[in-house]
Amino acid sequence: GRYVAFASFATDLVDGDTNGTSDVFVRDVQTGTTALVSTAGLPADGSSGLSGLSGAREISDDGRYVAFTSFATNLTSGSNNGRQQIYVKDMTTSAVVRASVNEATGEAGDRTSQTPAISGNGQVVAFRSESTNFSPLSVSGVTPEIFTRDLVAGTTTLESPGAAATGRSSTTPVLSFDGRYLAFESTGVLDLRDLDNGTQDVYLRDRVAGTTVLASLSTVALPGATSSSPSISGDGRWVGFQSLDDQLVVGDLNGLFDVFLYDRTTEAIKLVSLNDADEQANAASFGPSVSFDGQLVLFGSTASNLVTSPASTGNQLYVRNVVSNQAPVLPAFGGDVTLTEGQSTHLTWQFSDNDASTSWTATVNYGDGSGKQPLALNVNKTFVLDHLYASGAYDLTVEVTDDAGATGSLVIHVVDTNVAPTVSLPATVNLAFSLTLDSSGTFTDPGSSETYSATVNYGDGSGTQVLPLVGGSFTLHHAYTTAGSYSADVNVTDSNGGSTTATMTVKVGGYSYAWLDPVGDTFVVGRNLPVKFTVDGPDGSFVLDESVRVDVIDASGNVVAGPYLFGDQPSRSVVVSNGSYHVNVDTRSLSAGMYWLRAQFSSPTLTGEFTLGTTGTAAAGTTSTTSVKTTR
Question: How high is the pLDDT of residue 60?
Answer without folding.
Answer: 95
